[in-house]
Amino acid sequence: MSNENNPNEINIELSEEIAEGTYSNLAIITHSNSEFIIDFVRIMPQMPKAKVKSRVLLTPQHAKRLLMALKDNVSKFESQFGVIKDTDGPSIPMNFGGPAAQA
Question: Cys-Cys link to 26, which of 12, 41, 61, 98 (CB 3.0-4.6 A)?
């Protein structure tokens, strides 16, 4: 189906490089009055430094839609595979220069 027949359809392109993905085991979320910033970090054992591997900026409206989509997908995953057990992650300071949360 082409976009001419359905104006609500979006053609999304995914390059090979992006399709490979980037592993992250920590997300640091900060926000201002106009945007949410999610920094995806990879922490390695016994390493005192960790690098941000990817940063995503979202409008507050899109951040809320992402939250709802994640809730829906986690619920579907747990229905199929069982409850995801929360494990103790690394202890990190939460004072990265603004309101922050960890996911």
Answer: 41
Query: Which tens digits make up the pLDDT trace of 11-58?
Result: 999 999 999 999 999 999 999 999 999 999 999 988 889 999 999 999
Tokens of 11: 């053609």
First to last CA, the chain: 38
All residues at 6 or more sequence positions from 37 whose CB lies less than 8 Å from its CB, including other chains: 29, 30, 31, 55, 56, 57, 58
Instruction: Show the tokens assigned to 53.
Output: 């591997």
Q: Is the whole-model pTM more than 0.85?
A: no
Going from the C-alpha of 17 to that of each of 14, 22, 51, 88, the distances in angstroms are: 8, 10, 19, 32
State the Cα angle at 77 between 52 and 30, rounded to 5°. Answer: 30
